[in-house]
Amino acid sequence: MILMAFAVADVRAEEIVVIVNLAAAPLSKEQIVDLYVGRSDDYTPIDQTAGSRIYVEFYKKVTGRDSAQIKEIWSRILFTDRGIAPKQLPDSAAVKKAVAANPKAVGYIEKSAVDASIKVVLSVD
Amino acid sequence: MVFKVTPAVAATMLALVPVMGHADATIDTIDRYVTFSGFGTLGVVHSDYIKADFVANVVQPRGAGYRSWSATPDSDLGGQARFTLTDSLSGVLQVLSREDSNGKWWPTVEWANLQYQINSDLKVRVGRMVLPTYEYSDTQYVGYSLPWVRIPIEIAYTDAGLHSDGLDALYRVKTGKITQNLQLQWGHTQVDLPGAQFTSTSAAVVVFIDTLQYGDASLRLAYQNYSGPGFPPVRLRVTGAGLTYDPGAWFVTADSNYSQDRFFGDLFAWYVSGGVRFGHFAPYAIYSTTHAQSAGTSGLKSLGNDHTVTAGVRWDFAKNLDTKLQLQQVTIDSLDDPASFANLSPGARVGDKVNVLSLTLDFAF
């Protein structure tokens, strides 16, 4: 628990990076925005836990929208059966694992969690 | 309209039953095999005009007016189950309880279909779907998904956004930075209006929608054609165009449609709206109107005419919850069933201004 508390505290100052599978082509920021606001399903976006610091920061800085707006957008997609919101995973390690295993997956993690199993396509300061 | 189960809906339900029984069979890749979601709105409306009932939808038999406060225009409750059968096959069932044209709250099946993803750009659906005639028509009862308390009633005056039982194809085309979402739907729909003068009729319906998305901007073109027997015979064509720009911190959106009906004549409806978002608050304004362009065989020259100025604010005060406060002034431009009202009394006059206050609490999970 203490370790987890430290890990969460670290996220605040840290840069967020958007990652893809090693086999995947690079993605533009516009493509990433489209995936996370439900305008495209060319790739499979993977989310962190709604309301977590990294989640809030990612949406604010990359899509320009806050958590409530994101929920509003996906509720419209959900209740017209045009898709479901990105699957939420508990932490960056889980996101990294999912992205490493799926050539179509896109995720976002803290910069410090980057390793050779995935590649970075966008840095968010 | 009491829980009508048509063959298309029944077939979809039957197809989903064996799936529910084997929910543990193929969970390895998809752990969200069946997902349940819900939405609802608790709303009250106040009107200062006692000569008519302000309604939120053309099918509603009563609203706020004769009784100055009413909870019926906006309140509703919906539930949805979504079934993932394989990577490319899924099903959905959505049930909604809302005051219907008979003043009852019997749940109706809004969505019940099977969806097959043929490739990443093409999917087909079979079963019941809500008609996508105008922007927001397919989520007009999901208050949480709307920036306002409700969609401007004028735009929906000739079409209450009912569902259709049939077939639907969705195709996506990318041309450079523009993505087009093409939708073609055809099936049967029930048209049910309050009052004994109109019978419930079944009509064949064809809809074609083209949505062009360019970043945060989208242009929506719509065409819908109804035809069916009954009194009056249904011969209605709706052609629409809408534009939205929503970069996140603010939005502007506009929609319009031109309806042509042999009996009721031609009507033109439109609205324009804008809003800004400050943290959890999103104030907005709307101007909306409908005006008859020509009389049909009914002889009514100004069917539906009214115009509305609206201001309101949405407050996302907690996770999955919002509350909205909306003030509007509706001007009655015709005594032939002005769009925003039911039960017009003989004392009503053209030019009368009606002040309406609405307060809602929306949720979605």
Task: Identify the notable features of this structure and list them briefly.
heterodimer; A: 125 residues; alpha/beta; D-Maltodextrin-Binding Protein, domain 2; 5-stranded mixed β-sheet; globular; B: 365 residues; mainly beta; two-stranded antiparallel sheet; 1 helix
Mean pLDDT of chain B: 88
The helix tally of chain A amounts to 5
User: Quick one: biggest sheet of chain B?
Assistant: 16 strands, antiparallel, barrel
End-to-end Cα distance of chain A:
28 Å
Q: Give the SSE string of chain B.
A: HEEEEEEEEEEEEEEEEEEE
- CATH superfamily of chain A, by name, is Periplasmic binding protein-like II
Using only CA atoms, what is the Rg of chain B?
A: 21 Å
Low-confidence stretches of chain A: 1-7
Largest interface, counted by CB within 8 Å of the partner chain's CB: A-B, 25 and 38 residues
| CATH topology call of chain A | D-Maltodextrin-Binding Protein, domain 2
Structural class category of chain B: mainly beta
Rounded to an integer in angstroms, the radius of gyration calculated over CA atoms of chain A is: 14 Å
How is the largest sheet of chain B built, in terms of strand order?
Answer: 1-4-5-6-7-8-9-10-11-12-13-14-15-16-17-19
State the share of residues found in helices of chain A, binned by percent: 40-55%
Number of strands of chain B: 19
Strand order of the largest sheet of chain A: 3-2-4-1-5
Helix-strand layout with pairing:
The complex is a heterodimer of chains A (125) and B (365).
Chain A: H1 2-11, E1 16-21, H2 29-36, E2 44-48, H3 53-63, H4 67-78, E3 87-89, H5 92-101, E4 105-110, E5 118-124
Parallel strand pairs in A: 2-3, 2-4
Antiparallel strand pairs in A: 1-4, 1-5
Chain B: H1 7-21, E1 34-47, E2 53-54, E3 69-70, E4 76-84, E5 89-98, E6 108-119, E7 122-130, E8 163-175, E9 178-191, E10 201-214, E11 217-228, E12 234-245, E13 250-261, E14 265-276, E15 281-294, E16 306-318, E17 321-332, E18 341-342, E19 353-364
Antiparallel strand pairs in B: 1-3, 1-4, 1-19, 2-18, 4-5, 5-6, 6-7, 7-8, 8-9, 9-10, 10-11, 11-12, 12-13, 13-14, 14-15, 15-16, 16-17, 17-19
